[in-house]
Amino acid sequence: MGSKKVESGLPLAVGDQVVYASHGLGRVTKRATDQSGQEVVVIEFATGLQVTFRLDKAQDSLRALSTEKELKEVRRALADTAPAATGAWAARFRATKEKVTAGGAVGLAEVVRESIQRERQAAAKRGGSAAPSERHLYVLARRLLAEEISSVRGIDVAAADAWIAAQVPDVAD
């Protein structure tokens, strides 16, 4: 759930919100025909980044904003009481990076949950935190997820972020 691709034939009208994997929430700002006769769409992100896609590539690369039904799956993923994955840091990092790169809402929720659990466990044991590269992925996943929830529910990003944190249970190791 949460990672469905934009269906073929979806208009991708100017003003539509879409999600582009690890870049997050964007808005269609333009549709045009390029010099080769291909139809293109321009997506703009809050950061000012603009990405131009051929229409067929856009339909493969973008997904629609999550629905409330999909946010229920996100909530389930955040509330899962399974302990955070353990094992070799490199394998864990690779799996985390794949989920963030894929950009699916449930995958982002899993990254956030496991990262919060790991941070809580580290703080309780030794006061440490995740490696900088792992922490970067967590912060990115949490920001992307909060921005999407904010847009879907019409709330501010801080409220969406607080909702995310409230869903993750304390798990003893």
Describe this structure in words.
With 173 residues, the chain is α+β, with helices and mostly antiparallel strands. It folds into two domains: 17-64, Thrombin, subunit H (Beta Barrel); 68-167, Methane Monooxygenase Hydroxylase, Chain G, domain 1, CATH 1.20.58. 50% of the residues lie in helices and 16% in strands. The protein has six helices and five strands; from the N terminus they run ββββαβααααα. It has helices at residues 55-61, 68-79, 89-102, 105-125, 132-153, 157-167; strands at residues 17-20, 24-33, 39-45, 50-54, 63-64. Strands 4-3-2-1-5 form a five-stranded antiparallel beta sheet. α4 (105-125) packs across α5 (132-153) and α5 crosses α6 (157-167). It is elongated and about 60 Å long. The relative contact order is 0.15.
Top keywords for this entry?
single chain; 173 residues; alpha+beta; five-stranded antiparallel sheet; 50% helix; disordered N terminus
Write the layout of secondary structure elements.
Blueprint: E1 17-20, E2 24-33, E3 39-45, E4 50-54, H1 55-61, E5 63-64, H2 68-79, H3 89-102, H4 105-125, H5 132-153, H6 157-167
Antiparallel strand pairs: 1-2, 1-5, 2-3, 3-4
Helix pairs in contact: 2-4, 3-4, 3-5, 4-5, 5-6
Concise synopsis of the structure shown:
By secondary structure, this protein is of the alpha+beta class.
The CATH architecture classification of the largest domain is Up-down Bundle
Tally of contiguous helical segments: 6
Reading off the top of the CATH hierarchy, the class of the largest domain is best stated as Mainly Alpha
Based on helices, strands and strand pairing, what is the structural class? Answer: alpha+beta
How would you characterize the largest beta sheet?
A: 5 strands, antiparallel
Shape verdict: elongated
Low-pLDDT stretches are 1-7
Strand content: 15-25%
**SS elements, strand count:** 5
Radius of gyration: 18 Å
User: CATH topology of the largest domain, anyone?
Assistant: Methane Monooxygenase Hydroxylase, Chain G, domain 1
Strand arrangement across the biggest beta sheet: 4-3-2-1-5
Number of separate domains = 2
**Residue-averaged pLDDT:** 88
Note the run of SSEs as H and E.
Answer: EEEEHEHHHHH
CATH superfamily of the largest domain: CarD-like, C-terminal domain
